């Protein structure tokens, strides 16, 4: 499976650790930046990654910044994307099982690297089931999003 990953300069180190972790597990990782020493606006990176997910180029992606919050907010602005900030095992699990999140967001300044790897593993191991009790909720999210898009035109 191919996974997209992106960060701003506040989370370059965590991005590289997670990228290496994914590659060691056999994932092909496409890096959307930032590069070492590069200053970027996190909305630009988040949008590029989320847009690629929405276009179907990636089923899953990882975004990291200082807290994970900014990346998550930006990614969720892209229609068809569900991103979640995860800083504990339960949130990582539920973001997939209950919300079918395609993007996990984390913050280098708020969690350690071993926890980040564990959260990523948990998140990747969970698969959303269209037979779950959460399916109607995810469908409703999609409906509301489409209603909003139509109303904005």
List the helices and strands and how they pair.
Layout: E1 2-7, H1 12-24, E2 28-31, H2 42-54, E3 60-65, H3 69-75, E4 83-85, H4 89-97, E5 103-107, H5 113-125, H6 135-152
Parallel strand pairs: 1-2, 1-3, 3-5, 4-5
Q: Mind explaining what this structure looks like?
A:
A five-stranded parallel β-sheet has the order 2-1-3-5-4, with helices on both faces. The chain is α/β, with parallel strands linked by helices. The protein contains six helices and five strands.
| Percent of residues in β-strands | 15-25%
Helix content: 40-55%
Q: Topology as H/E string?
A: EHEHEHEHEHH
- Mean of pLDDT: 96
Sum this structure up briefly.
The chain has 153 residues and is α/β, with parallel strands linked by helices. The chain has helices at residues 12-24, 42-54, 69-75, 89-97, 113-125, 135-152, and strands at 2-7, 28-31, 60-65, 83-85, 103-107.
Keywords:
alpha/beta, five-stranded parallel sheet, 153 residues, Ribose 5-phosphate Isomerase B, Chain: A
């Amino acid at each position: 499976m191919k996974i997209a990953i992106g960060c701003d300069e506040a989370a370059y180190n965590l991005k590289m650790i997670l990228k290496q972790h994914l590659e060691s597990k056999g994932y092909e990782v496409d890096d959307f930046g930032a590069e070492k020493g590069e200053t970027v606006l996190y909305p630009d990176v988040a949008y590029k990654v989320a847009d690629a997910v929405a276009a179907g180029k990636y089923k899953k992606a990882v975004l990291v910044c200082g807290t994970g919050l900014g990346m998550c907010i930006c990614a969720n602005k892209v229609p068809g994307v569900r991103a979640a900030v995860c800083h504990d095992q339960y949130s990582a699990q539920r973001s997939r099982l209950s919300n079918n999140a395609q993007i996990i967001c984390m913050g280098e300044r708020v969690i350690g690297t071993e926890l980040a790897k564990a959260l990523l593993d948990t998140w990747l191991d969970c698969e959303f089931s269209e037979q779950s009790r959460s399916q109607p909720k995810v469908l409703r999210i999609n409906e509301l999003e489409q209603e909003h898009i139509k109303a904005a035109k």
